[in-house]
Design a protein that fits this description.
The complex is a heterodimer of chains A (about 375) and B (about 400). By secondary structure, chain A is α/β, with parallel strands linked by helices. Chain A folds into two domains: about 230 residues, 3-Layer(aba) Sandwich (D-Maltodextrin-Binding Protein, domain 2); about 100 residues, D-Maltodextrin-Binding Protein, domain 2 (3-Layer(aba) Sandwich), CATH 3.40.190.10. In chain A, β9, α6 and β10 form a beta-alpha-beta unit. The longest helix of chain A has 20 residues. The N terminus of chain A is likely disordered. In chain B, about 30% of the residues are buried. Chain B starts with 15 loop residues before the first helix and ends in a 5-residue tail after the last helix. In chain B, the strands form three sheets. In chain B, strands 1-2-7 form a three-stranded antiparallel β-sheet. In chain B, strands 3-4 form a two-stranded antiparallel ribbon. Chain B has a two-stranded antiparallel ribbon with strand order 5-6. The chains are: A alpha/beta (about 375), B mainly alpha (about 400). At the A-B interface, α1, α6 and β10 of A face α2, α5, α11 and α12 of B.
């Protein structure tokens, strides 16, 4: 993705109408929950929102399958391939957890969720975890009673314009018509950005990404704005991706990560450390190609602890010793997953940027395995 | 002396509540009412309990907080720092605007199509039948999207107007049809004496009211003349003059001139913009509801006995006048009641606006505000209140009109 001037912050609230709630404000999903409460009460169902089943791990083991909530289809992050197999960056997290818990990376039931349904699906127990490029925000974490188990992608909202307009900065967009997906915090970020730069624009609120794309390509709007990774993924589906540029300005923070319900910290730990294992594996040089070799034993105690040849980390999690080894073997380490699904050699073409290891100037920094 | 024979006063016994047909229905109604009240009370208390359990309290304080988002069509001043309440008002006015426009055009489409469907001309009547059946049997949401998609795909984007050899040019040098909307010249007042907008409106309204009285007096005079001589004087050019001349003089004094839209930066500026979403929504609601109104009109006309038409014809009235003077006025009393519900349908269907990005009240208050504040119950209650008020108002106005045209029984 040579054109992306902001290698680093990409992907976010794409096709997820809500991302980045402001502090203390509720969002669509919460709204959905409230509606559910409202209608549930009305129909005397007496729904208890967010009721947590305490032993998700037991449930998953008994079921033999992990129910993982993903997007309804965003190429690179989660989408079924030509054979109907789910592929993508978020999918890989689900597979790693399934491999760690069940020993089988394919024992995953992928549940497509929309921006509106994802949180109710998680709160109601329909899914065990949600890996749907969901922005970690205060109100989701605290008010919606979820637990974010880490960040697998640091993203931010950006702008895409046709090259022929000759625009090189979002500050040149005075008077432009901007297509936005409505119901997201994208529109708030947008209003703030234009206001603080003292320039005007005309918003065109669009319900879905597909429609917005069509409007943008027809020239009904000059600019399309959503998370930078979403822009890259959308652009990759265009006939002539090279005719469009993503502007350097990133106007919001969108840390995306998997999340689980409140009330089952053991399960949250499993998801958190499965993700951390992928990130640590890259840092320590464990990859899908050398993992067998390394699990014979190395001089690095941390690698040994992760791969289960030393210590009792798996036992502490309630799993066996080789949990992390299987998680890493499922799709490779974080870097391999990134390169395979959304990296620079794929049509999505995202650079590592902020998503590089901390040792390489990025933000990926996993706590030590000890 | 009259003897009043009272019916024997039977002693009321409780068992009569069931055994006596005079009381039985009352008993059952009372029981049903009681059960209903208990059921509603149970649901309500359940709702309140659940809301409390979920930590939700009904509060409208959020309406005073800054909305934080922008709206593309605002009939009143608004920016992203305005409160949510103002955003709701912007949405309400947009809803009323599109509902009003669509009611007008749907009525025109409906009456024309309904009358023409009864035409003796085979082609015309069949064409109208096709129009009615196609538009009425496809959901309005699909029409809205189809029209919007066609508009954005067929019309050029403003970029096409740029450059030395643009691929698109403005119609008559003053109107630009783009896929973002239609830009037309806007009126500007040049006379510095008329700087106050409100005063200008009052003046224009005064003149229009004057013209209305003038034309009313003229038609009264024409009718009197017809009663007297049997000749109906041709008055349309007088009427036209009464409407146009005074207003024209006023506007000239005010220094009216037209501001032609110009391509500046990304978009046209100056003049008036009629947004693409408004056009698509307006047109879709009009043709869709027009098809229903056409059927109402046809039903109304066919309800008028054929004798009326024949009698009017035998008086020497031409078919057009038979329709406008004899048949339609009588048909109105059949047409109006279902027409009211069509108007209500338009108003309620306008809530589909978000499909094409039109900022109606469902999109602002019930969409973005609801999402950003999480005050779902409050927003939905407000929306319900708004649509209820509007619908009841439309009904009330139309009922007044219905009373004025219905058969007067004396």
């Amino acid at each position: 993705m040579g054109n992306n001037p902001a290698p680093g912050m990409n992907t976010g609230c794409f096709m997820r109408p809500e991302c980045t709630p402001r502090n203390g404000r509720l969002h669509q999903e919460e709204v959905k929950m409230k509606k559910t409460v409202f209608f549930g009460a009305l129909t005397a169902v007496g729904l208890v929102a967010g009721a947590a089943s305490a032993a998700t791990l037991d449930d998953v083991k008994a079921r033999g399958k992990l129910n993982c909530g993903v997007t309804t289809g965003l190429v690179g992050f989660a989408a079924p391939d030509a054979n109907g197999e789910w592929q993508g960056f978020d999918v890989a997290v689900c597979r790693a957890v399934a491999a760690a818990v069940l020993g089988d990376a394919t024992a995953v039931e992928f549940v497509p969720t929309t921006g509106k349904t994802r949180f109710t699906a998680l709160a109601s127990g329909e899914i065990d975890m949600l890996a749907r490029n969901t922005t970690w925000t205060f109100s989701r974490d605290v008010d919606l009673k979820f637990e974010f188990t880490g960040v697998n992608y640091y993203d931010g909202q950006g702008f895409m314009v046709p090259k022929e307009l000759g625009v090189s900065s979002a500050k040149d967009l005075d008077g432009a018509t901007v297509c936005i997906q409505t119901g997201t915090t994208t529109e708030l970020n947008l209003a703030d950005f234009f206001r603080s730069n003292n320039i005007g624009y005309e918003p065109v609120p669009i319900e879905t990404n597909a429609e917005a794309q069509q409007q943008y390509l027809a020239g009904a709007c000059d600019v399309y704005t959503t998370d930078a990774s979403g822009l890259a993924a959308t652009r990759a589906t265009f006939e002539a991706p090279g005719d469009h540029v993503i502007l350097p300005e990133i106007i919001s923070k969108e840390p995306l990560g998997p999340l689980v319900r409140h009330g089952d910290p053991e399960w949250g730990d499993i998801v958190r450390w499965s993700l951390n294992a992928l990130i640590a594996a890259e840092e320590l040089g464990i990859s899908s190609t050398n993992i067998e070799e390394l699990s014979a034993g190395t001089n690095n105690p941390e690698i040994n602890r992760i791969l289960g040849t030393e210590g009792t980390l798996g036992e502490m999690l309630g799993l066996d010793a080789e949990w992390a080894k299987r998680a890493i073997a499922a799709g490779g380490n974080y870097g391999e997953i990134f390169a395979k699904n959304i990296g620079e050699s794929t049509p999505i073409g995202l650079a590592r940027g902020l998503n590089a290891q901390w040792t390489e100037g990025g933000l990926l920094y996993t706590p030590p395995f000890r | 002396m009259t003897t009043i024979t009272d019916p024997p006063k039977g002693q009321f016994r409780v068992s009569m509540l069931l055994s006596d047909t005079r009381y039985r229905s009352l008993t059952f109604q009372a029981i049903a009412l009681f059960v209903l009240i208990v059921a509603i009370a149970y649901l309500a208390s359940n709702l309140v309990r659940n809301l409390e359990a979920a930590g939700l309290n009904i509060s409208y304080e959020f309406l005073g907080n800054p909305a934080g988002y922008d709206i593309n069509q605002t009939l009143i001043p608004y920016d992203s720092q305005s409160p949510h309440l103002r955003a709701a008002w912007v949405g309400i006015l947009n809803t009323l605007l599109v509902a009003f426009l669509a009611c007008m055009t749907a009525t025109v489409f409906g009456v024309v199509a309904g009358v023409l469907r009864l035409s003796n001309n085979w082609l015309i009547s069949k064409l109208m039948a096709v129009y009615v059946e196609i538009f009425r049997n496809i959901p309005v949401l699909i029409w809205i999207i189809i029209i919007f998609t066609i508009m954005t795909a067929v019309l050029p984007s403003p970029r096409a107007f740029r450059g030395d050899d643009p691929t698109s040019t403005m119609v008559l040098g003053s109107m630009a049809f783009t896929n973002r909307g239609v830009y037309i010249p806007g009126p500007q007042l040049g006379n510095p004496l008329f700087a106050s907008v409100a005063l200008n409106w009052v003046l224009v309204l005064l003149f229009l009211v004057g013209s209305w009285f003038g034309s009313h007096a003229l038609s009264k005079w024409a009718h009197a003349k017809q009663e007297e001589t049997g000749e109906l004087p041709t008055t349309w050019y007088y009427t036209l003059a009464i409407w146009i001349v005074p207003a024209g003089i006023l506007l000239t004094i005010m220094g009216l001139h037209w501001q032609i839209p110009e391509l500046k930066g990304f978009n046209f500026s100056g003049g008036i913009k009629i947004g693409g979403p408004l056009i698509a929504l307006w047109f879709a609601l009009s043709i869709y509801t027009g098809a229903f109104i056409a059927e109402n009109v046809r039903a109304g006309i066919q309800a008028i006995s054929k004798g009326q038409t024949e009698a009017a014809s035998s008086l020497g009235l031409r078919p057009g006048r038979v329709m406008s003077l004899v048949v339609l006025p009588q048909a109105l009393r059949v047409i109006i009641p279902p027409l009211i519900s069509q108007y209500l349908n338009i108003t309620k269907n306008s809530s589909l606006a978000i499909a094409v990005g039109y900022a109606d009240v469902t999109a602002t208050l019930g969409g973005i505000t609801l999402n950003q504040t999480g005050r779902a119950i409050e927003c939905v209650l407000l929306l319900m209140l708004f649509y209820l008020t509007i619908s009841l108002s439309i009904s009330a106005v139309m009922n007044v009109y219905n009373n004025s045209v219905k058969l007067k029984e004396r």
